[in-house]
């Protein structure tokens, strides 16, 4: 793991800091540093006191929780420009999950106390942070509603839609290619099911032309068909 100073353009590319002027950007530069983590490295562990706020500059990071039986539930997959965790800004907290790199990743690190100063001193940062937290609350409400009100088949279809929106690039009017690699076990851990159950549904979805896989192994999702099925259910 190495560290260095982030350049001004990379820092301005992060949504939270995009409205800062050059003098303000230089201040954030002085308060932060960049670290590179190899694949399958823990950036932080669940229940540790929060020390840093992280911005993913390059790579892919799995955010997941573990219960007392050792069962894993994936909370989020962070990709380029994502910030994590989403708590700890206003009072002392512990990390709510593990953060583990899925490939070599370059991460901007800002010590929590310094990040609080940035939020306090720059109104554009605080406004964008509040909007980000509001989006996360809305997303969590939607996920809870899906879990409580929808059968498992529909939950998986809705998960595929979320994956399309978060990580997909449109190939044509119907198909999206997912830019990150997610195993069937990963999908099971996101939705709180078993790999065997996910395998069975995905095999059925492939036969029905709802999903497919590229030659490189990327998941392909037919968003139009999923939306039609959801409307019929």
TrEMBL record:
It holds the Pfam family HTH_Crp_2. Gene3D superfamilies: Jelly Rolls, Winged helix-like DNA-binding domain superfamily/Winged helix DNA-binding domain. Residues 16-136 form the Cyclic nucleotide-binding domain. Keywords: Activator, DNA-binding, Transcription, Transcription regulation. GO terms for molecular function: DNA binding; DNA-binding transcription factor activity. SMART domains: cNMP, HTH_CRP. Residues 150-224 form the HTH crp-type domain. GO terms for cellular component: cytosol. The keyword Transcription regulation applies. This is Crp/Fnr family transcriptional regulator. It comes from Fredinandcohnia quinoae. The lineage of its organism: Bacteria, Bacillati, Bacillota, Bacilli, Bacillales.
